[in-house]
Amino acid sequence: MQEFMEKAKMEKIPREEYEEWIRKSMPADLYETVTARYGEFPGKTFCTPDGKLALGMLRFGNIVLMPQSISGEGEDTDKVVHGVKMAPPHPYIATYLWIRHKFDADALIHFGTHGSLEFTPWKQVALSSYDWPDVLIGEMPHYYLYMMNDMGEAQIAKRRSYAALISHLTAPFMYAGCCGRRSCRNASSCRPCRLRRPP
Question: What is the 3-state secondary structure (H, E, C) of 20-82?
Answer without folding.
Answer: HHHHHHCCHHHHHHHHHHHCCCCCCCCECCCCCEEEECEEECCEEECCCCCCCCCCCHHHHHC
